[in-house]
Amino acid sequence: MSNQAIVLQVAHQDEPNHSNIENNIKQNLDVEPTDFLESKDTMVFPEGGYGWVVVLASFVIQAICLGIPSVFGVFNTAYLQPGSFEGTHSTFAIAFIGSTTLSCLGLFGIPSGRLVDVMGHRLMCVIGGCIMMSGLVLASYSTNYWQIYLCHGLLFGIGAAIAYYAALTIITHYFNKKKGLATGIAVAGAGIGGMFLAPLFRYLITTIGLKSTLRFAGIGSGAVVVSMAFLLVPRLPTSHGQPMDYAAVAKDPKFVRLFMIAVFGSLGYFIPFFFIPTFASRHGMSATDGALIVGLLNGASAFGRIALGFNADLLGHVNSLCLCISVASLATLLLWPFSTTFAILTTFGIIYGFFIGGFVSLLPTAIVQLFGVKNIGTIIGMVYSGIFVGYICGPPMAGLLLDSVTSTDAFGVQHTNFLPSILLGGGFLSMASLTSISLKLVINQ
Q1: pLDDT at res. 281
Q2: Over the stretch 38-56, which tens digit does the pLDDT of each residue have?
Q3: Cβ–Cβ < 8 Å for 330, 266
Q4: Average pLDDT over residues 408-437
Q5: For residue range 360-387, what is the model confidence (pLDDT) as tens digits?
Q6: Could you give the angle at which helices 51-65 and 210-229 cross, rounded to 10 degrees?
Q7: Bridging pattern class, strands 43-45 and 6-8
Q8: Sign, CA torsion 199/200/203/206
Q9: pLDDT for 148-165, tens place per residue?
Q10: What's the confidence (pLDDT) of residue 16?
Q11: Is residue 132 within 8 Å of residue 221, measured between CB atoms?
């Protein structure tokens, strides 16, 4: 077998050499792919070459599609300022805008993934980039809450979902043994993007204003995503609308657990991203300090996605997924409540960011590990549909708790107890951790 390629052969169970084929597939994996989903064709994975160009393009696209939503805390602070738009709205209402953007990754996961499988990665990525640009530019001209919600929250989110699935799933065309590392590098774009975009957007908002910043972000994001789309050269044919047994996938015990990990993990995932700036402000730190910590959190997340992806190729993707979610939940519950100084809050942000990055990079590779590459866009979309529940409910629930425990004293100073929201996020991540352990037990049966 060449060092430059891996040949995977998947056969029917009644063929005499089935066990040998299974052993080839299981190299560096925890378990074999599910038989009824895998292609019978021989597939060659270059494990490099032009694949690294595809990884680079996916990295940049991820930096926009997930980087901008991950720093919504900066926009959250700006939207809460008087005069941002007509009327005043609660922390819950503003957080709902950002959570809607993120929830679109789940809500439109199945249709986006299926469209990518059928229509191709390039075309869908171009369409997604144009929709993203339209959403943020239109938001800059919005004057009412519902307009901002539809444009910044929903329209931008739809475009980001379409481009995200196109950029994520094409990596499986080029990598198998190195898919953890390649996917980790690609999705690290979200962390790197967030690390630079948080202070950049904060600077732009304070210098040129919120509306001009939205226009800059919209035009820039659309141009970058569309240009990168032309580097996404597919190797495997599209499915051209071939039927898929959705029921068989949905009934698989491994799929059920992956779906629940997506639900619980997404419920807790973005609560620190959204509320660290407000937490920092309430504990005497500046808005710049809060934006910097969010940026460092995103940077640590980027590094974690690469490091944990490389680790997963050696130790198994499900094993590494269990580890990273467990440590992130413990950091949230045991460290964040006591992070009342800049140094400690920064420490929490780095630890949490590093390990929660594995949730992003290892969930899709675990899906590929368990179900193979055929119709992978659709299957990832099915699992990620669970993210809709988490992203649409997680941050708003935390915001609602904050509103309920926030009071104003006689001098007009607000006092907020962040502990209920912190425990909420840590509790959800703990449930994801327990479910990932359950997945491992099912695999080992």
Answers
A1: 84
A2: 443 456 677 778 889 999 9
A3: no
A4: 84
A5: 788 888 887 787 766 777 788 888 888 7
A6: 160
A7: antiparallel
A8: negative
A9: 889 998 999 999 989 988
A10: 37
A11: yes
Tokens of 321: 């997924």
Q: How far is CA 212 from the centre of its chain?
A: 27
Which backbone phi and psi does 144 adopt, to 5 degrees? -120, 160
Q: Identify the bridge partners of residue 415 per DSSP, sorted by sequence position.
A: 407
Report yes or no on whether pTM surpasses 0.85. Answer: no
* The pLDDT of residue 429 is above 90: yes
Residue 140 burial (CB count, 10 A):
20
Positive or negative, the Cα torsion across 340, 343, 346, 350?
A: negative
CA atoms within 13 A of residue 182's CA, in its CB half-sphere: 27
Whole-number pLDDT of residue 408: 66
Q: In Å, what is the CA distance from 116 to each residue of 238, 242, 378?
A: 8, 13, 8
121 phi and psi, to 5 degrees? -75, -45
- Average pLDDT of every residue of the chain: 80
CA dihedral 40, 46, 52, 54 (to 10 degrees): -30
| Nearest residue to 60 (alpha-carbon basis) of 261, 256, 233, 220 | 220
Q: Checking phi first, is residue 69 left (phi over 0); if not, alpha (psi -120 to 50) or beta? A: alpha
User: What's the 3-state SS for the chain?
Assistant: CCCCCEEECCCCCCCCCHHHHHHHHCCCCCCCCCHHHCCCCCEEECCCCCHHHHHHHHHHHHHHHCHHHHCHHHHHHHHCCCCCCCCCCCHHHHHHHHHHHHHHHHHCHHHHHHHHHHHCHHHHHHHHHHHHHHHHHHHHCCCCHHHHHHHHHHHHHHHHHHHHHHHHHHHHHCCCCCHHHHHHHHHHHHHHHHHHHHHHHHHHHHHCCHHHHHHHHHHHHHHHHHHHHCCCCCCCCCCCCCCCCHHHHHHCHHHHHHHHHHHHHHHHHCHHHHHHHHHHHHCCCCHHHHHHHHHHHHHHHHHHHHHHHHHHHHHCHHHHHHHHHHHHHHHHHHCHHHCCCHHHHHHHHHHHHHHHHHHHHHHHHHHHHHHCCCCHHHHHHHHHHHHHHHHHHHHHHHHHHHHHCEEECCCCCEEECCHHHHHHHHHHHHHHHHHHHHHHHHHHC
Helix 91-107 × helix 271-282 angle, to 10°: 160
Say yes or no to pLDDT of 19 above 50.
Answer: no
* Predicted local distance difference test score (pLDDT) of residue 426: 94
Q: Give Cα separations from 43 to 7, 38, 139, 376 (angstroms).
A: 6, 11, 45, 14
